[in-house]
Amino acid sequence: MASDCISGATSLAHILHRRADRHPERRALTFIARGTEERKAYSFAGLDQRARTIAALLESHGVRGERALLLYPQSAEYVESFLGCLYAGTVAVPAYPPDPTRLERTLGRLLGIIADCRPKVVLSTAEICAMAAAFAEQVPGLGELTWLATDQQDLGVTPLESPADARSEQLAFLQYTSGSTSSPKGVMVSHGNLLANLAHIGGSVKLGEDSCSVTWLPSFHDMGLVDGLLEGFYSGYPVYLMSPADFLKHPLRWLQAVTAFKVTHSGGPNFGYELCVRKATPEALAALDLSSWRSAYCGAEPVRAGTMRRFIETFSPRGFSPSALFPVFGLAEVTLKAPGPQGQGLVTLGVDKEALKEDRVVPLPVGDANAAELVSCGESEEGYGLAIVDPDSRDTLPDGRVGEIWVYGPSVAQGYWRKPELSEETFRARIRGDDSRTWLRTGDLGFMRDGQLYITGRRKDLIIIGGQNHYPQDIEWTVEAALPAVRPGCGAAFSVEVEGEERLVVVAEVDTRPQQGGATLDLNAAAVTVRQAINEAYQLRVHEVVFLKPGSVPKTSSGKIQRQAAKRAYLERGLQVAAEEQAA
After folding, report:
1. CA–CA distance from 447 to each of 352, 361, 399 (Å)?
2. Fewest CB atoms less than 10 Å from the CB: which of 213, 235, 410, 451?
3. How would DSSP label each residue in 356-397?
4. Domain total for the chain?
5. Do 120 and 256 belong together in one domain?
6. pTM of this prediction?
7. From CA 110, how far away is CA 69, in angstroms rounded?
8. Same domain membership, residue 174 and residue 264
9. Considering the domain boundaries, does residue 332 fall inside one?
10. pLDDT per residue over 304-363, tens digit each?
């Protein structure tokens, strides 16, 4: 029984070690390529032995309780080392190695993480360790770290007999935030936080040893790490791991994997579902069988009702059940998943767009010309709480009012690494007049209605023009819908101050290659189309439209748009412009 492996455990390492003892030959992890090709597979016993070996390597360097930076591409070796840290009592710090072809965009984040967490060792592959000397020439601090390659079979150590003892409150890993509105911060996740969130996820979607998952999400990001990988080791089911690049190159490989391995549990951001819809062809659809898929989670960015409906329409003939859809709300500060059970499928609400600008919720029928359709991300669950709070007065708000989303529960992390004041403000907030508990301030805006939580946007990204609130993702969706040449999830809307007032700027990546019929995109006409669409939808005048080269919109390591970084680059004229319309 799953509970036999979980009961009384104080760390995920203990649970995995028990599974290796009781079900040694059962499949635990498989790295796949091209959707269905198995490249490297582990039983629970094999994964446990590899984790104990890397734990012994860490112990030989005396880093129990210290930080170990993990620098790997998406790979089985990364999983080995993360688990090795848990087994050794070393604090894992997942990160992604800098891209030598894009050092100016990828090295800065890594250096920020290193400066903040001050790791004692770096775990990586032999190839990346060999590159460390080259990086050290540009950044001397990198050369001072101890680099350990873990991808060799013989590491010269004897595996530990069992995982190190771990207290529930002991730090397990630092999850650096994606930095969509600010510089990355290290969220301190304890062993107890991790186990609580894994139990929360498993209970919400009824996961067990008969489940099976596949993930292409980056393993150094909270959703890819916690739900994509660790949940399988906790609940006892096989996990199939593929690289994000493999998915992005051919999105339907994700669904081919679901078909081939009879996957029951998998998901990703909204853009992943959208890409699958766009790439679906009659030939590809004919080869799919999605009838095994019981929970299809969608999160990490706003969930679009239109995308979800198109996904259902496209793939339900291939066995996909609409009830499998599972829109979720989560963040690194709560380990991953915030409250919200599964089982209702897609639940939406039409609201008056004009009232929403004033933080009021006035329901309208979905499809009404004045309605915005929002997707529910669940409701409160036992042991977890949700509140909508005025961020300034800290008063709770009634149903139908937009405010900041506050949460509490056992998986809320301990705070930010080496940031006590910010931790106090964010993780230990109190509602005015109620000292009975502390809350986590999520920084997200939303409202409750009929017990359901609806997300409206990020507080720091909110655009306020003429005293009216506008959510940037709404404007970005409008641009995508009006102009098919805009790459999905590759635009940013923000405001800038011009002559003493806030004005709207839109930047978007476009595909300028010849379209069907040989015609190239007329960028001047495209800018006019964008202006008209925004004016019709929001009665907003666009100050400037900037079309960008593919791959140039600033994004976090997990693929979220960094609107504040885009704004800074715009003001500093640092964007890679394909064409630029003159300011109005």
Report:
1. 14, 8, 7
2. 451
3. HTTTB--B--TT-TTEEEEEB-----TT-EEEEE-TTT--B-
4. 3
5. yes
6. 0.84
7. 10
8. yes
9. no
10. 899 999 999 999 999 999 999 989 998 999 999 987 655 678 999 999 988 988 889 999
